[in-house]
Each structure stands twice: as structure tokens, then as C-alpha cells.
Amino acid sequence: MSRYTDALRELKDAQKAAARSAPAYSRFVNRRLGRFLAAGAHVAGLSPNQVTGISALFTLAGIVGLATLPLTWGTGVAVAAALVLGYALDSADGQVARLQRRGSSAGEWLDHVVDAGKSVMLPLGLLVGLWRAPDVDDRWLAVPLVSAVVTSVLFFAMILTEQLRRARGVQSRAPEGGRGASLRSLLVLPMDYGVLCWSFVLIGALPVFLVAYTLITAASAAFLVLACGKWYAELKALDQGARPAVTPDAGPAAGRVQVSTP
Asked: What is the pLDDT of residue 173?
């Protein structure tokens, strides 16, 4: 049996359980892609931080292409492919860390810093691309600006909420399975970063893409409002000495923060 096959088997056996309400693409597709890439990275002798760096380079390539190339079908496919591969590698770094037993606070910090950067750079890259494109109404430029605000606030609020929970001895937990959890996994699909990555395939049909991107942004903004209300209530209850029921942060991989269902 090859080293790659051995690594795949070990990863499958040691796979960290995903929250059942995690967005469907992150849960069922991206984690699996990340597993194959993690096994390959392990065989190649790459460290978790090196995998994080490669992930960042693919994501950056996609963002630069979005900002500088004509918004054609070819550009959309190339951008989507780079972003999807970057996302899969983002899942792989934590799996490599588990496989090599090299998890560290520094590695988790690096992963979060890269995530924070891309959450703002991606909508700003789109903003530049739309600004450069001919015949795009300037009013559409407001959408990526709103997206940049929503994603950065959501990312920060999610991380801070989790840290404050841990400081009070409350750990997020995965909900029990069942039809409700699967339904929630599908309902939060519009907020899944993987869906956003694939949406750029539509950029060759720019009016269609703009509508889809606006709907994704609106869904994310609505989620942010609902989630912040819920998280504030949880933390207020902790301040008052109660112990609220905590729903999970739906992250598909170690060292990664994703959306959680409010």
C-alpha cells in the first residue's frame, strides 16, 4: 500500500467531526477535497504552514485575476478554479497538522490571518474588476463594498464570540443529527464560501453574476444580523450567570472559522 493511500486512510480515521449544521458544500465537498490534498501534501513533506501559504497564493491569484483581467467566461472559470483550490487547501492545512501531529497556536493564528485577509480582499478585488469593466452601472459597485463590511464584521464577531465563550468555560458543540440539522446545512448554503467561489463561473454573463452575488451578499447580511443578536444574548446570559445553550460554529476544518447557524 502506498504512502498516499496510508495517509488517506489515517486521515479518514482521524477526521475531526464537522458540525452537522455546517454549510453543505464545506461539509460534504470541501472537507473531502482537503483530505486528498492533505494526503498529497503529507507525502510531499509539506508542513501545515506551507500548505496554508500555498492556499493563500492560489486565493491571491484568483483575486488578482478578478481585478485585472477582462470579465469573460474564461476569466470566471480561472478565478473560480483558483479560489476553489485555495479553499480546499485551507481545509487541508488543519488535516495535515492532525496527520503530522503538528498543530500549534502559531499555525492557527496564521490560518486565521490569511482568512481575514481574503475575506476583505476578495470583494475589493471584485470591486476593482467591476470598476474597470465597461458598461457596468456604478451603483453595482456598492454591492462588493457591502460584502466587504459584512464578511469582515462576521469574521471578527464569530472569532471573538468563540473566545469569550471559552473564557467562560462554554464550548461550542455539534448538534444532534437528523432532518433538522440537514435542513439547516442547506439553508446556510448561500453563506458558504465555497458557493461564493463557484459563483464566479457566471462572471462571463455579468448581469446574471451580479444578481447572484447580490443575493449572496443580502443573505450573508441577514445572517449577520440574526447571528449577532443571538450571540449577544448568549454572552449577556453568561454575564448574568446563566449558561445558555450554545449552537456550533460550523467550521469544516481545524483552525478555520465558518458561519454558524443562529
From this structure: 54
Average pLDDT over residues 79-84: 98
Residue extents of the structural domains in the chain: 3-239
CATH number belonging to domain 3-239? 1.20.120.1760
Question: Could you tell me what percent of the chain has a pLDDT over 70?
Answer: 83
Q: Which three cell numbers stand for residue 159?
A: 472569532
Cβ atoms of 76 and 200 within 8 Å: the answer is yes
Q: SS3 string of the chain?
A: CCHHHHHHHHHHHCCCCCCCCCCHHHHHHHHHHHHHHHHHHHHCCCCHHHHHHHHHHHHHHHHHHHHHCCCCHHHHHHHHHHHHHHHHHHHHHHHHHHHHCCCCHHHHHHHHHHHHHHHHHHHHHHHHHHHHCCCCCHHHHHHHHHHHHHHHHHHHHHHHHHHHHHHCCCCCCCCCCCHHHHHHHHHCHHHCHHHHHHHHHHHHCHHHHHHHHHHHHHHHHHHHHHHHHHHHHHHHHHHCCCCCCCCCCCCCCCCCCCCCCC
Cell of 190: 448561500
